[in-house]
Design a protein that fits this description.
alpha/beta; 8 strands; about 40% helix
């Protein structure tokens, strides 16, 4: 069920997918709620790569409307082992999701016995609020969009509005309250070369592995109405190569955490892509790895474009500016 409209009574989008839970593949219901938008976006214009506030409503969203959205999605699918709730911002921000609406969602999922994942910025996370959530729904997973463990990257390439220490505080308090933590890392925010972006994610994985149940790599996809889209249209930015995603999955150490990578928009010019001939093979291999954690799924990937990717990693070292060099060289 996909509802691409800003109707305050309907969720923006709902779908069913598979997740890896306790070493087993399980069905997961994913719900994107229509809300009033991210508080950081309202204060500052938001993160450079984020266009999710286009999914927010330009009309007032009542607590009852949020509950109605959730109920509509909940009724649309059979029981799932896991439910993931996303908004344009933070599930724990009461200016976006009221305490009454949050309680309704937590109680409904809690009574079903399913695991509930929700995302929040660190400033809305405390041990007390997570404990309250767990009292209503025992299986809680807090998702934190860290993007990078490097504060300079967070400030200048993402515009995140918080630092690594803020993430650590929120993740630690959530863990102490009894919740699991899922950490999102961003592959190739603007102003980083391909090689720098790969290294940034690998280093970030090392920093968050111990505190995370799941580490999810999100390769940048160029969303409409964002600063990155302006750069992309000017050839000043190229989304990451799928070779880069595979390099990270093959050669990072997540410890006991599950490591996975998103394939949203992969294979398109706006998303992570290679040469187009091999993109589908890479997408299938990455999705297979996500659900198995078996690196053998990635071993057979080969294509002539690997040489282009490797040359790019070398050439970018001598570039005075970050740009989509392939487009310049192919003119």
């Amino acid at each position: 069920m996909d509802m691409k409209r800003k109707d305050p009574q309907r969720p923006y989008s709902v779908w069913s997918e598979e997740e890896l839970i306790d070493g087993r593949r399980a069905r997961c219901l994913t719900i994107i709620l229509t809300t009033s938008g991210c508080a950081w976006w309202r204060r500052s214009g938001g993160c450079l790569m984020c266009g999710y506030n286009l999914k927010s409503s330009d009309v007032a969203i009542s607590p009852g409307s949020i509950a109605e959205q959730f109920d509509a999605a909940w009724r649309s699918f059979d029981r799932h082992s896991m439910v993931k709730i996303y908004t344009s911002g933070s599930f724990l921000d009461e200016s976006e999701i009221s305490s009454d609406a949050r309680r309704h969602i937590l109680e409904t999922v809690g009574k079903s016995g399913s695991r509930l994942l929700f995302e929040s910025r660190p400033e809305f996370v405390s041990r007390g609020i997570i404990s309250e959530c767990i009292s209503l729904c025992p299986k809680i997973e807090l998702a934190l969009g860290l993007e990078s463990a490097n504060d300079l990257v967070l400030k200048h390439s993402v515009g995140k509005g918080f630092g690594f220490a803020d993430y650590i505080r929120a993740a630690t308090e959530a863990r102490e309250a009894g919740a699991d933590v899922r950490t999102y890392l961003l592959l190739k925010p603007p102003f980083l070369t391909e090689a720098e972006a790969i290294e940034d994610v690998k280093t970030s994985i090392e920093h968050v592995a111990e505190i995370s149940r799941v580490i999810s790599i999100n390769p940048v996809n160029v969303q409409r109405g964002t600063k990155i889209e302006q750069m992309w249209k000017s050839w000043a930015y190229r989304p990451p190569w799928l070779w880069s995603v595979v390099e990270i999955l093959r050669n990072s150490d997540p410890g006991k955490a599950i490591l996975m990578a998103s394939t949203v928009a992969a294979g398109s010019e706006r998303g992570a892509h290679n040469c187009s001939k091999c993109d589908l093979d890479f997408i299938h291999a990455i999705e297979g790895f996500n659900l198995s954690q078996d690196r053998r799924k990635l071993e057979s990937l080969e294509c002539d474009c690997r040489g282009r990717w490797e040359r790019l990693l070398e050439v970018e070292k001598f570039s005075v500016a970050v740009a989509d060099l392939e487009k310049f060289f192919s003119r």
